[in-house]
Design a protein that fits this description.
Order of helices and strands: EHEHHEHHHHHHHEEHEHEEEEHHHHH
Largest sheet: 2 strands, antiparallel
Distance between the termini: 29 Å
Strand content: 5-15%
Helix content: 40-55%
Strand order of the largest sheet: 1-2
Structural class: mainly alpha
């Protein structure tokens, strides 16, 4: 595997014009950086000279976010490998086996590359914002410029949020006082000094929220198609993302404040504002083409000519020798722990979400088929769904009410009953507040299996990362050195002000 230059992740010496669509760029996962085509590159001065070039760069910022080693797949793969629901089938080091065993060090590939691609997305957003402030606004006008900058700031916020979930202690550990991330807020398009100390976790979250608040104020209400409403940021996207961020901070009053902007007071829970969000009647349809249901608030889109390389399906699906089809022939790197969540009696046999589980025809292993296509990469990757907003609101209400709140139960029931018509939650179903909260956390575990959310829930609640008996991997407590990823060796080498702690 060819390693791209570390310096490049902070240095965009040429600006890549992404075309007029969100999914038109295609290239080899590594060689896109090493062998650019001269006909698609222009200087950073000219990149902001026309409205068309500026629009193309907006598309390019989203493209950075969905890189294969970031939200395209591997950030979520690494999160799931840590969280205990999967077994590393062959302990393949190229498929997050080191992360699975909680043995990551500063030189581990996923530690390096998730960080690199995350900061590539951040720098692309920063370079764009700088360019708009230095001349681009005059080309497209104040209103459209604010819209575009809001999109860039939302992308930057998302990148910082996901990096925090792996490389920093949770907010609850010291009320955000622990080391967070280097906050790079201006673009680097030339080689030079990259020295920058880590901001605190709180400071990093504050910047994320500042970006999302700006985005909410300046993004459009909606777009002209369901595809754009799913893959391009609008006001409800920023609001939904803020519920995710505030939940990670255990700031439950603000989760409620934000979620109530897009969730009706009573069932059936919907958003009548701007984009009409609601639970899709079938959770199975959410993960089928065209991936643009009313539940799909923000997703990373892919097509046969726009793939970052590795896909979630390639990691989670079996090969044809164990039940995979020729169209969904996976590498079988991560199979589900049959003694874990699938064995939980509260996840009933009548639940439609069990249709995402496939038992291997040869090995008997359990595989996750939520993402159905290994190659070419066609599955959209959800970043936030309406079901997550509902369950976050349910949990926030439960944690602030102190009792068994009727609305919290109704929100939980909406998600459960969508997939499991045999479980009918009412307030009398729960003996106390603790029982209700436990059921909400379990519902999140089931609903978002394979979507990279379980690790973030473990972290924010300061739970142990579960042991993995299949390979004698012990649990990691919040005080364990391996509870979070280390800062990558390249960063430590070139950034003299950063420390690994």
């Amino acid at each position: 595997m060819i390693k791209r230059s570390f310096l490049y992740r902070y240095s965009l010496q040429m600006v890549l014009v992404a075309g007029t669509g969100l999914t038109l760029l295609s290239s080899c996962k590594k060689n896109e950086y090493l062998n650019p085509q001269a006909t698609t590159l222009i200087t950073d001065v000219d990149a902001f000279s026309t409205a068309e070039r500026i629009q193309a760069q907006v598309n390019g910022i989203y493209f950075r976010l969905k890189a294969g080693d970031f939200l395209g797949s591997f950030c979520f793969v690494a999160s799931e490998a840590r969280a205990g629901d999967f077994i590393s089938t062959n302990l393949n080091a190229a498929a997050a086996a080191t992360t699975y065993q909680l043995l990551t060090v500063t030189t581990t590939e996923e530690v390096q590359e998730i960080w690199e691609d995350g900061y590539q997305a951040i720098n692309a957003a920063n370079v764009f914002i700088d360019g708009m402030n230095n001349g681009g606004t005059a080309v497209v006008g104040d209103a459209l410029s604010s819209n575009y900058i809001a999109e860039a700031r939302l992308v930057r916020a998302v990148a910082y949020y996901y990096l925090l979930q792996l490389y920093a202690q949770p907010y609850a550990n010291g009320a955000g006082s622990r080391p967070g991330l280097p906050l790079r807020l201006t673009g680097n398009n030339n080689s030079g000094s990259y020295d920058l100390k880590r901001s605190t976790v709180k400071e990093t979250y504050d910047q994320i929220l500042e970006d999302l608040n700006f985005a909410e104020q300046n993004l459009p209400d909606n777009y002209s198609s369901a595809l754009l409403n799913t893959t391009r940021a609008h006001k409800n996207t920023a609001i939904a993302l803020k519920t995710k961020v505030y939940l990670s901070m255990q700031d439950y009053p603000n989760v409620i404040l934000e979620a109530n902007k897009i969730v009706s007071a009573a069932a059936p829970f919907t958003s009548a504002q701007r984009v009409a969000h609601a639970l899709n009647p079938s959770v199975l349809t959410v993960f089928n083409p065209p991936y643009t249901t009313t539940e799909s608030i923000f997703s990373m889109p892919f097509s046969s000519n726009d793939a970052p390389g590795s896909s979630l399906g390639s990691y989670f699906l079996p090969g044809t020798g164990d039940g995979g089809s020729p169209a969904s022939n996976g590498a079988g790197n991560l199979n589900l722990n049959p003694n874990g969540l699938p064995a939980d009696p509260s996840w009933t046999a009548a639940d439609d979400r069990r249709q995402f589980l496939l038992q291997g025809t040869r090995t008997g292993r359990l595989w996750l088929t939520k993402f159905k296509q290994a190659s070419p990469y066609l599955d959209f990757v959800p970043v936030v769904r309406y079901s997550e907003v509902l369950l976050s609101l349910s949990e926030a209400i439960a944690r602030t009410s102190g009792g068994v709140d009727d609305r919290a139960v109704a929100l939980l029931a909406a998600v459960r009953n969508r997939s499991d018509k045999t479980t009918n939650y009412t307030s009398s179903s729960f003996a106390d507040n603790a029982a209700l909260i436990s059921a909400i956390i379990k519902e999140r575990h089931i609903e978002f299996l394979g979507e990279g959310i379980r690790n973030a829930d473990i972290m924010r609640l300061q739970l142990d990362i579960p042991a993995k008996p299949a390979h004698s991997v012990p649990a990691a407590s919040p005080s364990s050195p391996n509870y979070i990823f280390p800062i990558p060796s390249d960063e430590l080498l070139l950034n003299k002000l950063i420390e690994n702690n």
